[in-house]
Each structure stands twice: as C-alpha cells, then as structure tokens.
C-alpha cells in the first residue's frame, strides 16, 4: 500500500508563510535590496562608457578622455564586484535566518505530529522533509537564491538602460520578450508540480528503503527478498522518472531561451545599423545597446541554470510549510491537575488504523506509588497498553485517568507521565545537553546527581551521539533513565527498557530503573521476569486482555500462565538465551 504523505502547502500558502518569516527581518531585507540594486546599477554604467570610448576614438578625441572613461569602467567593475559579493552574503544571511525560523517551526510541529499520522505517511516522508528538504533549501539559500536575485535585477535594469539609450533600440531589445515571457510562464507553471512530484517520489523511495533495510531479517526469514527488492526498484524508478521529467522541462526551456537570445541580438544589430545610417544615433550608442543586450546572456544563463534549483527549493519549502501548518494538538478543554499519582483504565480498547483490535476492554487500577509489571507473550498488547497509558496513543474506546483526571484534560501531560522505551536516541552533543532535554533549567549539580542516581559513569562534558562517543545500549538507557529522574513525573512507563542490554548490563539497568522509579507510580513492560518479580503487582496480558493479576508469589502458587512463564525463565539458560 502506497503511504499517504503528510500535507504539502499550496503555492499561495507557501508565499504567505515566506512573507511571515521575512517580516521580522525587514531591516536586513531593505539593506540587501539596496546593495543588490546598487551593484546592478554599477554594472549598468559599463556599456555606455564603452560606447563613449568608441565615439571618442571615431572622433579622434584627446587620449585623456579615453583614459578617464577607461578608469570609470574599472571603477564600475570594482564597485560591482564588491557590492555583488556583499549582496550575496546578505542574501545568504537573510536566507539562513529565515531557514532557521522555518526549521524551528517544522521540528516543533514534527515533534507534535500524532503517531498515527506519521505511520500513515511512513517515517521516511517526515525524515525526508526534516533532513533532505531542509538540505535542498539550505543549498538554494547559499548558492541559487543570491545569484538568481542578482541576475533578475541585472536583466531588469539592463532593459531600462536600453530604453535610456534610444527608445527604438529598446523596442528592438524587446523583440524576444514575448518568447521569454511565454516560455518562462510555461516553465514555472510546469516545473513547480514536476519538482513537487520529484520531492514526493524521493520521500516515498526513502520510506521504502527504510522499511527494506530495517526489516531485512524479517524479509529474509519469509523469503520475500525478491518482492521487497521489486518494491524498492519500483519506487526508485518512479523517483528517477520524476527527476527526468523535471530535467526534460529544463532542457526545453533552455533551448527556447537560447533561440530568443539569438533573435534579440539580430534585432539589436539590424536596428542599430539603420539608426546609425540615418544619423539618429552614434556608433557608440549602437555599440552600447549591443553590449547591453549581450550582457543579458550571462544573467539569463545563470537564471536558467539555477532556476531549477530555486524551483526545487520552492517545492521543498512547500513540503516543510505543509508540516509546519499541521494543526497543533488541541489544548485541554477544561485543564485540570491530577489529585494524586493513581492510574485508572476503564474499558480501554485500541486498534491501529486499518488493523484488528489490539486491546479489548482493559480495566485496571494502579494505586499511587505502586509498581506494576506487565508481562505476556510477544504480540499480547503490552507496548500498546504502555503507549495508551502514557498518552502517546489515544484509545479507540474507553478512558485513561491519572489522579481522577482523563488524560485529555490534564494540563501539560508530560509533566505528569513519561514513557521510556528500549529504543533510546542519543542526540549529538554533550551528556549535559542530552540531559537538559528533560529539564532545560537544571544545574550541573542536578545533572550530576541524576547520573549518580542511575549509576551512569558518564561525564557531563563528554561528547556523545554523531561525531562523539557511541554509547553502549546500557549507557544509553542509563542516560534515558537519568532524563526521567530530571523530568520527575508522577507516573512513569518503562517499555522493555532493559531488553537491549546483555545479561550484566540488564542487571545494572534493573538497579538503575529501580532507583529512577523510586517514589513514583510505575508501569514496567517487563522483558525480563526478574523485573516482574520485584514489582508490587503483576498483570499478565494475553491477546489484548488481562488474564491474571497479583503479586509474584501468589501468581507462581496459582500455577497459571505467569507460573508457566516463570518456570521457563528459571530453567538454566545459555549466555545466548540470557541475551535473547
């Protein structure tokens, strides 16, 4: 099934969003425009100065005049170079500031996107937007946008310069204008959707690759390698086809633009010849007109070469604005504060979109400060129950309450309940940076105390994540548990938080988890039954239903499903089994 991609903003909405991002930087925008216009005007002086040199040479004027005009040309060229470089730097700075604002909005909204929406679209689409699309826009801001802006100004002011020389020469220079306008309108109208389709196809391809690589073991186990490779080939071919369509449109545009340039040169030369012959203009003026038109080739060529990058950046921008414009999670209609750390699940049911029901009418009461372990076979619904309890997923039926208040009505839910899973992300930066994700205002002393609580032998200044030390599964999970200590929620849910560690590491993590959960209401999705044995109460899930509940000793004596699980756990295990 092809994933339903996240929203993409319309062109009108993208322009509106861009205007909103530019508004806080009005002064920089005005200064940038002034510098770029001055740079274009400086270059505008060169053709008429050359024309005057031609007239002076024909009239056999004093050498001093020619020298002075030559110095004027040099001055104009130097001014142009300096101002163009400054203008490019200003445009790039403005673009990076705008991009930073957009990036913050997108990431902020991406973190709030409901899990169900991400699953419908596939994580590849969101990943492509917050990485690939940002990279496309960033490259456009640094390279394409400054050069396109300067080139467009050069084109416009050059046409003005032609009009100042002689209106008939200006009319001759406008001969290719209808062709330029028509082909540019066609290209902009055609290439926009083509580049949008290209970006969307790349997002689908990324998602397919992620699924194929992430599920490689399953694919091999079920002998679906050929089918998965065919799926990857199909989406890769679609991405290549989309890129080729955009490239073909660009080549057609270039061919017509080159033909229009040739037509314009011919019109200028013929008109200049007749005007000089009629003594209506000087040879120098006709020369300046030809130079004006010839110097249009470079900016037009640059615009042609980089407009596809600008269009691609525009398509990427529309995709980012689409994410930034996604509705924020609704505020609680009647925000309330839980009275205590008790938890109640009443008739909770949950089904993933398009799938069968996973939880079937779960009823559960957890007392304040109680540590509850949830055990069961794979697929029993343990992780889903933890996600529903933590508010990560909304149940399709039933209610979840903390301290007598439904989750939907709790103000700042994350302050009251936190979820720690076995998949921990370590962000690039120092250990202190990673810890302050949980509490930005925490002091170094508080960070160090949190590390000591969970027994993590990490230094606050140690650089971890990409470009730094790659933490082991045990150290990464200790870092996550230290974040939990700093966040200090009343209710904590641990979803198989020791599953990724080996035997020795798991024992260290069990001690760390016990220390982090001290004084809190805790729900532990237990991968290792030693965690369940240490809990106040155990709930056994089977096919989305609670089939047993009670303390460890009581359940073992009962001889039911938990007793069977415990007996299997207690059998002598090989090191490989211990790690499984």
Low-confidence stretches: 574-580
User: Can you summarize the main beta sheet?
Assistant: 6 strands, mixed
Helical percentage: 55-70%
Fourth-level CATH superfamily of the largest domain: ABC transporter type 1, transmembrane domain
Question: How many DSSP H or I helices?
Answer: 21
- CATH class of the largest domain reads Mainly Alpha
Q: What characteristic shape results from the CA principal axes?
A: elongated
Query: How many E-type strands?
Result: 12
Mean pLDDT value: 82
Number of domains: 2
Query: How far apart lie the N and C ends?
Result: 32 Å
Task: Describe this protein's structure.
This protein is of the alpha/beta class. It contains 21 helices and 12 strands. The protein has helices at residues 11-22, 26-44, 46-58, 63-112, 115-121, 123-165, 167-173, 177-214, 216-221, 225-277, 283-294, 297-324, 382-389, 431-435, 444-453, 473-487, 503-517, 529-533, 552-558, 561-570, 575-579, and strands at 343-351, 357-366, 371-375, 397-402, 405-406, 417-421, 429-430, 463-464, 491-495, 521-525, 537-542, 545-550. It has a 6-stranded mixed beta sheet, sandwiched between helices. It is found in: Cell membrane.
